[in-house]
Structures are given as C-alpha cells and as structure tokens.
Design brief:
single chain; mainly beta; 856 residues; 7% helix; six-stranded mixed β-sheet; 43 strands
Length: 856
Amino acid sequence: MTDTPPTKGGAALRLLLVRLNLSAGLSSLPVVGSQVPEEVDVRLTGLCVDVANRALVLTDVQRVNAMLTAMGGQGTPLLLAEASWPGKARLALDVELGGKQLQLGTQDGSPPPSMRAIGRNDQETISTLDGKDLSGTPSTAWYTVDRVLGPVRLDRLGVSYADGTVWLLIDAGVDMGGLKFSGRGMGLGISLHDPARITPRLDGLGIGFSRPPIEISGALINQVRKGYLVSLLGAAVIDVPSFSLSAVGGYAQRVNAQPSLFVFGQLGFPAGQGVGPPPFRVTGAAAGFGYNSTVRLPDISEIDTFPFLPSAAGGGTDAMTLADSLTRSAAGKAPWVSEAPGRVWLAAGLRFDSFQFIHARALVLGEFGLTGGSDITLALLGQADADFPLKSTGSSRYAHVSLALMASYTSRENALRVQAQIQPGSFLVHPSCKLSGDAALVLWFGPKHAGDFVLTVGGYHPKFQVPLHYPAARRLAIEWDAGPVSLRGACYAALTPSAFMVGAELDVAFHEGPIQAWCRAVLDALIQWDPFQFRVTMSVRIGVRIDILIPISAEIGVDLDLWGPPTGGIAHVYVAFGWTFDLRFGEDPPSEPKSLGWSDFVSRMLPGPVAQVVVESGRLPAEPADGATEKPDEICEMSRDGFTVLTRASIPASQVVLVTPGHTGKTDTGKTITVRPAGVTATSVHKVTVTHDGAVIDPTEDPYGWTVGQVTGKVPLGLWGEPLKSAGQAPQLPVPATKPELVDRLTGTRITAPRRPPSGGTVKAKEAAVDREERRIDEKPLLATAQSGSAPTRPYDRSTLAAKLTGTDRKPLLEALTACGVAVPPGGSLTDSITGYAGHIHSYLRADPMTRGTES
C-alpha cells in the first residue's frame, strides 16, 4: 500500500498493489494435459491486482516506481508499466510462453494495445476490457499468438474476469502426425477469494484426422449450465471418396429430472453418385431419434435451412457447426431441438433425384407424448429443384424452379396443414425474370375452428379480411425487369366455407428517356353460394406520357363492375385526356338479397341426420342373436359403473330444454337462431326426454343423480350467420378476422350418469363364510324315469325340455321330487306355471341334462 502526496492542483494518490506467485499451465488441464511437453508449456506464473483512488498520469506512475525502487528488493516486483493509467482498478496475469514473459490484464477504460510484444525479452502489459464468460464474445479480450511450439499449436490467449474469478483463456491444439486435438473452453481460473486454488477447465475436446483419402472430425462439448447435473453435446464426421457420414448427439439432465437425449445422423454420396435406378436414385439419407426431447417444426420459409433434411455430401463437415445448427437459438426462435419431458420423436429422410432432372429432399418426422394423452405431431417436409434444360448451369439455364413443401398434423391443434412455396432463386427465361408465390390447404377438425377449411393459391381477395387462424400466402407472381421494359404479373384463388375468390393482374411498363408507356389489367371476382351471388370487377388501362418541354399524357381504359343475380353491371369508360362516361346494363342491384324459401333450404342445404344420440363412454358390448351384427341405431346396454351420452343436432339450438314430469319444457320465444340462406330468424328448441319404464323422469334428481349440460359447437357462418340485409352486402365479403367463418352455437347436450352403488347396502362376512369347498360328486343327478344300468345319455336338450315345461303346472314336478325322497317346500300353489323357469333354462342348466338307466 502506497500513499503519495498530491501533485500540484491534484488529489492525493492512494494505491493498493498485490503480487501473487502462481504455478500452473496447459499440463494442468484434464485430458490434453498429458500430451503437452514441459518445454512448450504455457505457464501461469503470477497474479497482479492494482487498485487506485483515481486515474494515473505518466508523472504519477514515475513517482510510484521511484518510491518502489527506493524500497529495494521488496518493491521491485510491484513496479508499474511506464504508461498512463486511465482506470482505477486492473487485474493482470503473468504468463510464460516459450521462455518469454508476457502480462495479460484487464483495466478500466483502456483498449488492448498491439499484440506484437510476443517474443520480446521484456514484459509487456496487455490492457483489455472486462470479461464476463469463456465463450470468446466481445466481452472477453483475446491475444493473437498463432505460434507452433513443438506439437502444440497456440492460436490465442485471453483474459476474462467473471464472478470473482480471473481466467486465463487458452485457444490451442495438439498435432500428432495427422491426428489433431483441439480444446474448447480451455482455461485456468484464479479465485480472488482463494488465490492459492487454481481451477483448470476444459469445456470441450475436438478430434481431427486427415490422411487421404480419409478425413475424420469430431467434438465432445461439456456445456456448463446452471441447474444441470450434466450437459453434453457431441458430433462426428467421416469423409471418404465414396460417401460421407455425419452424426450429432446430445445428452442433458437437470437436477431432479429425467435425462434428455437425441441422436441424428446423415449419409451422403458425392455429386453425381447414388444408389438406385435413374427414375429414383438415392443420393443421401438421414435419421434421428429423441427422448424427453422435441423438434421445432420449421415455417415454410425455413424448409431449405432445416438441418434435419438430408444435405449434400461433404456439405458442412465441421462437427460443431453440425451440432450448433440443431441446438442454437436464432432470430428469437427456439432451437431446432430442445428438452421436453415425456416427448419422443423419430425422423427419417432421403435425398434423391429423378433422371438427374429433379433433385429433391424429403423427411418424415413423428413426435408423440409418453404421458398425458395422445399428443401427436406428424410432418412430411420436402424441397425440390429442377433446371431446364437438363444438367444446364449458369447462363445456359432457361428455367430454374425451387419448391418447398410441408404437410403436418398436430393433435393439439387437431388440424391438417399442407403448404407449398416457390423459393428464392426461381426464374423463367432469364435469372432476372423471378418467380414467387405460396399455396396452402388447411383443414380444422376441432376443438377450435372445427369444420373450417381454406384452400388458397396466391392469397385472397383484396377486400378479404383474413381470419387470424388462416395461413398467409404471397401472390403467385412473376417479375421481370428487362432494360426499359418491366413486367409484373400475379394471380390468386381461394376457397373457404362461404366463398370462392379468384383474381389476376398484369402490369407492363416501358420507360426510355422522356417516353413512358404502360398497360395494366386487373380482375377480381368473389362468389358466395346459397343463395348464389357474385361480384366481379375488371379494369384495363393503356396510357402514354411524353416529357418534352411540356408533359403530355393520355390514357384510355374501362372499369367494369358486374353483380348478380339479377345480373347487371356498370362500365366506367376512360377516354383520352381525362374524359369519362358510364354505361349501365342489365338489372340494378336488388334492394335486398335474394333468399331461399324454407322448403328449398330444408331440401337443399339442411345437413343430416338432424338429430343423433352418441355414446361417449360406458357402452356395454352387445350380444346380437344368431350371430347378427349390431346396428349403431339400435338400443344398447350401458354400464352401471357410469356412462356419458351426447345428444346433438345439425341445426343449432336457440334453447335446450330438459323435459321433466309435469313440465313439457316451456319454450322461450325470445331466443332465436339466424338462417342466412333463408334470410329469417327462427326458434329452435333442443328437447331431451328421459323415460324409465315408459314414464318421464327427471334424471337430475334422486335416485338417479345424472348431470345434464349444454354443448356448444362450431357451425358454418354461411348457414347460420346473420341474414344479409342490403344489396350492398350481395355477396357479402368474407368476414373480418374478429368474426371467423365458423361461429359458436348450441348444438346439444352431454348427459353423464354416475356409478351406481350396489343395491341393498353392504354385507360384511368372514372369509370362511363365503369361501368355496371342493368336494367330489361321484354320481350325477338322474331323472326318476331313468333305467338302472344303462349308459349315461342326454335324452333331453334344454330347448326341448323348456318346450315341455312351458304352460305346465308344478304338480308333476313336486310328485317326482316326493318319489325321490325330496321334501316338498311348504306353501305355494301346485298349479303355478313354471314358464319363467322354462324361459331362463339356459341360465339354470349350463348343459343338457345327463341321465342313465337304473340297475334291475
């Protein structure tokens, strides 16, 4: 600690100078340390800590060094570098490299000086910015070395400070005759809380081997992550003349959690080589598996860069680049592969070509959950390229088309999506004549947007306010700038549950010097059905402009607006120099939209069946007689352990009524539904009646205790939406995003019966009282009329015996029992019919009775 008097006009200077001798080097690192010869070791020899109460100018440094020199041997190690010090605190590491001394340090407010001090006999202070990690980000200052010391290749040295620890960072490798080792995250850490303890660190190890014709590269990274017991990432690539094989895998386990792992590999063949006949020649393959892991599906625009699609042989042979592409977040999106407890995924793909004309890649991906229900994701992804003429390149190509395809189904959304996109780089005739556009088909099965669908090629009508859940799609377009002439063309078509739309536009322009000319044509059509209505707009404009002294321009054209039914329209005609006039033809638009009659609506549009009862759970298997198959609409038996049934109708309900004894269900006429095609509002009552032994009951009361709840479902807006109220809505443009093509309406009820407890209460008994006892019965019961000594026979089958018993009384039976010495039970009439016994004889007798004759 030194305290120097203030300079003239300045504050007093107080300094704390600490020097600590250390001994550690590359040989201290795990795994690779044993491969570093002592004579080329990079040694950490000391730690310096300097703290000042203010910045030091060169005069301050000289005065401090003079005071330290006056102290003799004790002050020599504390000497400061002869330079100004704008910071108030700095840390420095003394490093010995190849017999030379080097000092690396961090200092407030000072950039790192030149790196040319390596190899000089004197010490050189390297001032750097504060560091925060070991990843080589700008917060860590690196010192370029680029030297080979025996088998050790030293690329960079760095210094960083984070969390109370000063780190010496080392970017180096070992070359052993074709076999190369490289470290990632190598460093020696000195804790300021315990400077005597030096912590070696090696986050990853890379391995490479190059001995033509074989090249091998690989890496294993230990990712130090908070909250993890272990986190490993590894990759390897093998290149030989006939094929390329690459693989990447990851394993991670959080504290108190199941491990997560994934493995992915690719096989590729060199360009022009493959397996299979010319129509379908396989040029690559890929496969992967993940446990407690999930894969993020790409957007259609990301298909080309999706790392799971098989890539070309030799493409991206760097092992860690392959691994990072799967686990790295980019553009604010989740990594392609991330941890997800309870999820499993499988992937398999091919790279192939057809007659070397079409080059394609395809991948099938499936993901499902091990617990928590059937959460399933299925996807087919692909990308294809074609050139014309065959095998053409560069300026000899007249056309190139690259198409991305994606089909996916997720049970979470319960929707099937099929998308296609013309990718950048596609052209016709010339590379400047660019192609673009998207197409999509989506089917929603529920629970959200159930029954909705959309098919679009190139987007939607300009006035269509796209519902939020519909996919976006660019126009199917062509764009060509050929000198003074430019061409723009686009088209679209779309189909939704309530409308069909189609359109196109073409724009040709010429501009050369003072002369401009243009031609523009536009078509937009929108059609709505039941009731059928349409609106079509067309426009054609042709114009010219000349800018010589006085600008002169002229344009002719026509805008046509058609509607129907009744069919009519108006044409706005543009004559040169701004003259215009209108031509009307056909019928005027109706003051009110035409609606269907109720009978036409019922016969043509009402979906069927109108009402259904569907068993959701608890149905017992039926036992049809004589092997007949059961029909779905037959009466069925339900389990006493509880059941649930749905009542539903194709017509939405304005009211749901449960009919109870004495109350037939009063209808609230104030509640109605709307029927758009018929242009009316109506009362629709969904009545539910439950009977028991022919009598109406209230199932929600004792002793039944059922629950009856309303069910809401999605219905088409085109059928059950608000009627169109004016001709201006004929046909109505597709609804805005806040009003989807499907709307929620009452569609039925859900009736749930709880488990019924056993009748008569619970009976307690000891085990011995209900246990069974095995006893051998030597003789079978015999009929009284049987003859002794005869062989056992079955003279009566049960059906014949039942027929004999039907309509008889008990007297013959009781007499037979008395003859056999069996006491007749007291009470009862001897003439009672035993028809009930005959009707259930198959239950009482498990087989036809056996008899034999008695001995004489």
